[in-house]
Write a structure and sequence with these properties.
binds zinc ion, mainly alpha, globular, 6 helices, Nucleotidyltransferase, domain 5
Length: 160
Amino acid sequence: MAQGAILPEWVGIQILERLEEALDLPVYVDNDANLGALSEVTWGPHSGISNLMFLKIGSGIGAGLIINGAPYYGAVGITGEIGHATIHEYGAICRCGNRGCLETMASTTTMIELLGKGSGLHLEPEDIVRNALARDPATLRVVDDAGLAVGARWAMWRIS
Ligand SMILES: [Zn+2]
């Protein structure tokens, strides 16, 4: 397994070339946050909007940016990669090897781990949504903490 890979079973697979060959069409490959942002302004409820940020919180966390109607990647192509930004200097060790990354505090993986502790239950992301809507106190605490961590990252972005 490749160290730190989000989809380790895909390492080494030339997905762009394989899809173009199989479909005989041009294929565009990007990450889910960037494509989520693009879909919002292309087909979603925000069509016609020139500037948008799409925040994706799943097993990973990322932001897709649309600036002047087009995806924005920044100078080195990682502008929206906020999941491994340090939020808590003494926080949990992340799969990337750093400590206190946003993903260690707000990803669905983290929420599932926190809610599953001691229960022996394996939760899925939809269980978090269902339990939050049912006002389960532990679920609401975990979701609230995740929101605070994301908000803290946003506040750091605005300051810097
Ligand atoms: Zn990390």
